[in-house]
Amino acid sequence: MKYRTRLSLDILFKIVFKGTGLLVLALLGGILAMLVYNSFSFFMDVKPLDFITGMEWSPTAAIPKYGMLPLVLSTTLVTFGAMFIAIPLGIGTAAYIAEYASPRVKNLLKPAIEMLAAVPSVVIGFLGIVVLSPGIADLADLSNGLNALNGAILLAVMALPTIITIAEDAIHAVPKTYKEASYAMGATKWQTLRKIIIPAAAPGIIAAVMLGVGRAIGETMTVLMATGNASILPTSMFDSVKTMTATIAIEMGEVPYQTTHYFALYAIATVLFLMTLAANMLGEYFINRFRKYHAV
Amino acid sequence: MKTKLSARNLNISFGTKQVLKNIDIQFVENEITALIGPSGCGKSTLLRSFNRMHDLSPDAKITGTLQLEDLDLYAKSVPVTQIRKRIGMVFQKANPFPKSIYENIAYGLRINNLPCDKSIVEKALREAFLWEEVKNDLKMPATRLSGGQQQRLCIARAVALRPEVILMDEPCSALDPVSTLKIEELIVYLKKKYTIVIVTHNMQQAQRIADKTVFLYLGEIKEEGPTHKIFDSPENEMTANYIHGQFG
């Protein structure tokens, strides 16, 4: 190829890639602008403080109430519940695959986990309705099992593949020299795992957990199907809850265009966005704290 | 002259590849023994068989008798962690843990249920000639030390457990001459208390520090003896060729 052609190709691709990079930024900016713009329209009608601290969400009542606290609490409850289950299971499984499992078990387990990730959320929600929720109802002696616990268990199942895969990668990536050094000092496998490998893999493990949290906060279909969708202030895991995502999904289809209620859904979406952002930034913060010791 | 560490009729193979053949060797207490030989001759494999590092590779097959004094190193009743506490190891590439300098030494003490306080850590660092350089930065991540300091930290970490034998796998191969010299000085100082086996590619290093030298070639011991004899009047032609740099 001629020198000039090569040179112009080089410049062309520089522009193309710059373009794709800027496009992503523009998309993010556009989404953010739309959320904020519509949220402002909402806050013209309802005071932000009333929105954030309001204890009641009943936008279709005679006197509409736009308190999002029940929704935020629902999302938080389900997410934390899910993480409470998924983090120990996920890290345990990851450690097992990376450190203990024989190659045969590993070859069985890894594809199985990938397949778990491939199960559509609507199927998980369905299983939640027909299998899990009757079980919870029986055990806890409730009229039905469509509650926060049901949603948390299902979300844990959905977040597990993400957490396991990324945490396993992180554990696997810990330099072999650390392990050798630890064993050479007389450490057992468990001591090495707990004191050396997991701390060294911590940035990756935290990233895995944060991605799991992101998945759990943002998940819609499963919680919509499995948590009962009662917009009351939840007091325990056995209460029916209506998460922020489910609220938007359910109500967006029925709400009259450009009404206060319509804008309220945007405001919820903005808060959801901020929560996810906070989860990610928290993850970054921890990653940097641990990275300090990894610097070469 | 008491034999501290020995191997009799040792054969090691990985899968179908035999790496060591009929090795018979003794290491004398408070002596430095250098293992030399071309790459792939089995020096490191031999070294690592003494603290059972091959336990980590499932395809390693080991036959023969390895002993620390009278203790059979591969006996089922002997916990591997006990052996590794008594036989310390320093690796080719300095591998401090991604923790602080203090924690790097405290870790080994804690996992072995040994007492651990600042004076014990200080003693280990002093013995590794590192104390003066790091005494004000004990909380600093160990990875920020220079390569030579990191390697001395690894030696301090091994020394802190008060082992009987220290195995060193080319501890200076990644270091500059000044750091190398410091570590050699340290090794010679340590032999008063410990039995040291060192793998090295550096002929001058072997001559400078080792009391005894063992030449391995293709998994067999070709010649062994006092260092000056191996280097001044080798009996085996292969040894002569190797130490004069004709191959390797």
Compose a concise summary of this entry.
Chain B: It comes from Sphingobacterium arenae. With 296 residues, chain A is an all-alpha fold.
Describe the model.
The complex is a heterodimer of chains A (296) and B (248). Chain A has 296 residues and is an all-alpha fold. Chain A has two domains: 3-45; 57-294, MetI-like (MetI-like fold, Orthogonal Bundle), CATH 1.10.3720.10. Chain A has helices spanning 3-45, 48-53, 69-100, 103-118, 121-140, 148-172, 176-184, 189-218, 221-226, 244-252, 260-291, and strands at residues 57-58, 65-66. Chain A has a two-stranded antiparallel ribbon. The longest helix of chain A is centred in the first third of the chain and has 43 residues, at 3-45. Chain B has 248 residues and is of the alpha/beta class. Chain B has a single domain (3-243), classed as Rossmann fold (3-Layer(aba) Sandwich). Chain B is 35% helix and 27% strand. Chain B has helices spanning 43-50, 80-86, 101-111, 118-127, 131-134, 147-160, 177-190, 203-209, 227-232, 237-243; strands at residues 3-14, 17-28, 32-36, 60-68, 71-72, 87-90, 165-169, 195-199, 212-217, 220-226. Chain B has a six-stranded mixed β-sheet, with helices on both faces. In chain B, a hairpin with a 2-residue loop joins β4 (60-68) and β5 (71-72). Chain A binds chain B through residues 175, 177-188, 191, 195-196, 199-200, 292-296, and chain B through 51, 53, 56, 81-85, 88-89, 91, 93, 95-100, 107-108, 111-112, 141, 143-144, 154, 157-158, 161.
